[in-house]
């Protein structure tokens, strides 16, 4: 009352102020609501805070992102939102935040995670794979703007990356940092404030993130450990469709034509040879003319008769291979880009599951025969990064987000294309990369799509192109000083075991193999993971050396180190992996030294093996012994060894893919 009659003007001012405050409050609520809809991570107030520091709190961890972009530190990371991925440039000393995914890109990344189902391994690293049990709790990833270096340090400031061949923390550098779906789901249930954890827990409510297992044989459930694997197959006119009950179709649910036979892959190779999809260069060069001249000679080679260094039955056309190899030695010149800093670039890993990319990098850089310092003289350009070190240095454990890894390589390709004219001249068609990590197809997609990719994960359903890309052998190297340790095996007459397999239950196929054959037949030595220890490792090797056939089923991905292991121990490999392009497919005839079976043939495995006549088996085993030298790493490269075979396949595919204006 006093306000109305004694101070009418003051009352009017107070009334108007209240209305303005109410209006501002409504606008603030509307703004926050709008921001929560626009930002995938739901942190709507972030844009209202000062620019000094943004911090996302997660139980047991802190992710601090400074808007000044001076540095980034991740302590014991558990989850990171997809929009918080960091794009890092090691090429010009610049560090900046990567662009957020647009539209439905976040959900596309989830679809791609189903394609990239994990990492295959063998028994020797079973113990090492339990990363979540022995990973240092105070690992710190530090990216410094001025130095543009990446390191992973312990509390005593000892750099793990400098101890590449040691086991300081109880795990080898070769060991992959695997996302643990069970832990992620537990964290998701506990951490209601973690939006990313909620997102993935909702996206995969009833099955492990690593792979919705599919039984290609029949509809049933199989218990592996404490996990029940549900497998559902729906037939369609285009093939099999992988489905999950109660879920909409995702990218991995689309019908896929299963390519199982060598004859089908041969038809694809012939079509690629006839109609190359390689783009024409923006301008011609002398080097193009030299490759074109080599192509005409490879297509019309002199007949190679009784070459003591080559076993003719191993090759599709031994004369073409011999002529192409000679021209490679005489003609090929390669330029290696100097851009990129260690550890992701120029730092090879020579032991473990991903050693192939490291050995090739080491030998390529050290073997001066093919190298030129002047890029104008080069026929091919090598981008020397390690897909294993890329994952090791930049992947945030349990984040289930690899967008920043792909963005990192995109920035690298943009850097060299801006500095040099060669990438743009061909769209990257005369550039090549060598990568063994299972994530490499995803990391190099789009921005390196036209490059020649030498990949261990040679999966036709993940973009591998027969006739352009190269299937890189996945080799498990146990000793960097002596990669040939324990080479060889018993002669055929002394091999008492019909078939052997032992390993982790990665993927959907291996549980099916054990379901049908574990402890079912004395001639079939089919096991799960062998217990840790030196004795078990030696038993594994002795079983391979004592077996006629070594079973090589796919794991999470189509590739497996057992293929090369079998050849290493002179055991005939039996490859069971649909859509897998075997190594050096463009030149080798895999029917001369291996068996390639369809996944649906697992129930008939013994029937197939015992139906092979002894004479045929002896021919296959001879082929294994003869092809062995093409799958061996040497400290100093030897003619026709694994280094030269990889380089030759890259050269060979470029010869047949080249186009002129």
Automatic annotation (TrEMBL):
Subcellular location: Golgi apparatus membrane
GO cellular component, one term: Golgi membrane
Source organism of the structure: Malus baccata (Siberian crab apple)
The family this protein is said to belong to: Belongs to the glycosyltransferase 47 family.
Topology in membrane: Single-pass type II membrane protein
A Pfam family that the UniProt record links to this protein: Exostosin_GT47
Protein name from the UniProt record: Exostosin GT47 domain-containing protein
Alphabetic keyword roster: Glycosyltransferase, Golgi apparatus, Membrane, Signal-anchor, Transferase, Transmembrane, Transmembrane helix
GO molecular function: glycosyltransferase activity
Residue stretches spanning the membrane: 20-39
Lineage: Eukaryota, Viridiplantae, Streptophyta, Embryophyta, Tracheophyta
Domain (Exostosin GT47) ranges: 329-611
Major subcellular site: Golgi
């Amino acid at each position: 009352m006093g306000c109305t009659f004694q101070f009418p003007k003051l009352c009017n001012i107070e009334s108007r102020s209240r209305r303005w405050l109410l209006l501002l409050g409504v606008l603030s609520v509307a703004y926050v609501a709008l921001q929560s809809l626009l930002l995938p991570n739901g942190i709507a107030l972030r844009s209202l805070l000062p620019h000094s520091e943004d911090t996302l709190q997660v139980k047991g961890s802190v992710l601090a992102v400074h808007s000044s972009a001076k540095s980034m530190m991740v302590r014991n990371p558990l989850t990171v939102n997809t929009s918080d991925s960091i794009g890092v440039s090691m090429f010009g000393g610049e560090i900046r935040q990567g662009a957020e995914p647009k539209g439905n890109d976040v959900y596309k990344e989830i679809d791609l995670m189903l394609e990239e189902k994990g990492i295959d391994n063998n028994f020797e690293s079973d113990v090492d794979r339990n990363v979540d049990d022995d990973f240092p709790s105070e690992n710190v990833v530090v990216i410094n703007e001025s130095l543009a270096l990446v390191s992973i340090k312990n509390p005593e400031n000892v750099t793990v990356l400098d101890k590449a061949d040691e086991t300081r923390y109880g795990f080898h550098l070769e060991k992959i940092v695997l996302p643990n779906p069970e832990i992620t789901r537990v964290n998701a249930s506990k951490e209601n404030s973690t939006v990313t954890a909620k997102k993935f827990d909702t996206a995969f409510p009833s099955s492990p993130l690593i792979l919705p297992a599919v039984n290609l044989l029949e509809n049933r459930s199989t218990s592996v450990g404490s996990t029940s694997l549900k497998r559902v197959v729906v037939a369609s006119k285009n093939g099999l469709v992988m489905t999950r009950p109660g879920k909409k179709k995702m990218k991995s649910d689309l019908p896929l034509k299963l390519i199982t036979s060598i004859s089908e892959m041969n038809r694809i190779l012939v079509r690629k040879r006839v109609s190359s999809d390689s783009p024409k260069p923006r301008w011609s060069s002398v080097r193009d003319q030299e490759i074109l001249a080599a192509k005409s000679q490879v297509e019309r080679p002199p007949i190679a008769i009784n070459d003591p260094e080559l076993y003719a039955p191993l090759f599709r056309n031994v004369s073409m291979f011999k002529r192409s190899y000679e021209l490679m030695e005489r003609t090929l010149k390669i330029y290696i880009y100097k851009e990129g800093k260690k550890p992701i670039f120029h730092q090879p890993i020579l032991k473990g599951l991903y050693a192939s990319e490291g050995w090739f990098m080491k030998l390529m850089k050290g073997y001066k025969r093919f190298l030129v310092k002047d890029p104008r003289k080069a026929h091919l350009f090598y981008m020397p990064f390690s897909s294993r070190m890329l994952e090791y240095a930049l992947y945030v454990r349990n984040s289930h987000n690899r967008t920043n890894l792909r963005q990192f390589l995109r920035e690298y390709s943009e850097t060299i294309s801006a500095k040099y004219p060669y990438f743009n001249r061909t769209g990257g068609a005369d550039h090549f990369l060598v990568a063994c990590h299972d994530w490499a197809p995803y990391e190099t997609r789009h921005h390196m799509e036209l490059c020649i990719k030498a990949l261990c994960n040679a999966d036709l359903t993940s973009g591998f192109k027969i006739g352009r890309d190269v299937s890189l052998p996945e080799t498990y190297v146990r000793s960097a000083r002596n990669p040939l340790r324990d080479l060889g095996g018993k002669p055929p007459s002394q091999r008492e075991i019909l078939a052997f397999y032992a390993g982790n239950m990665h993927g959907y196929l291996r549980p099916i193999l054990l379901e049908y054959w574990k402890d079912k037949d004395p001639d079939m030595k089919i096991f799960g993971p062998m217990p840790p220890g030196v004795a078990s490792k030696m038993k594994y090797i002795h079983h391979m050396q004592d077996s006629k056939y070594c079973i090589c089923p796919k794991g999470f991905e189509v590739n497996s180190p057992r293929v090369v292991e079998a050849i290493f121990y002179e055991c005939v490999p039996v490859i069971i992996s649909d859509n897998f392009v075997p190594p050096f497919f463009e030149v080798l005839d895999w029917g001369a030294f291996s068996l390639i079976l369809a996944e649906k043939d697992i129930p008939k495995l013994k029937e197939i093996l015992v139906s092979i006549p002894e004479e045929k088996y002896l021919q296959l085993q001879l082929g294994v012994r003869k092809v062995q030298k093409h799958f061996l790493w040497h400290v100093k490269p030897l003619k026709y060894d694994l280094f030269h075979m990889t380089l030759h396949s890259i050269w060979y595919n470029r010869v047949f893919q080249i186009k002129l204006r």
